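Subject: sequence -> structure tokens, single chain

Hey, anyone have a minute? Need the predicted structure for the following. Not urgent.
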Amino acid sequence: MSDVTVYSLILVNLLVVAGLSVYIWRLLLKQKKKRLEAEQKLQEIAAEVREHRLYLIESLQVIAQSVINGEIPLVEACIRCKVLLDNLDPMLAQNEDFLVFNEVFEQSNHIPRMEAWKKLKGPQKVEFMGLIDQLEGKYEEAIHLAAKSLLVQDLKRYH
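Reply:
Had a minute. Here:
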């Protein structure tokens, strides 16, 4: 083998190694960029989750305080608290102190809400309002106790 051939092969090999090195370097940069983007997206999602949990906690506290102050219908408060607790922590919703929210929710589940309520005729509304009054009378004390328990509950652990 001549010197020219050997040097040519060495040059070709050096070019191949340099080309592969550039290719690997580009792949590593791409991978690093994707990892940084994924970490940033994960941090954004975590921040959104924290904000949502804070919203749930604040909403629960406002509703509980409204129950204590008599500023909100009790059945409506139970429905809202049940949904908020289920979203915050389904196990917390099953806490003995808060079972009244589930109970009232289940017993009032067939009552039309929002747009469906607006479409009801007067006699239908009166019938449902009578049921609501019965539920509020039956569970008033338990709802107030649950609201007080909700206010003293350490919900910061969810934030």
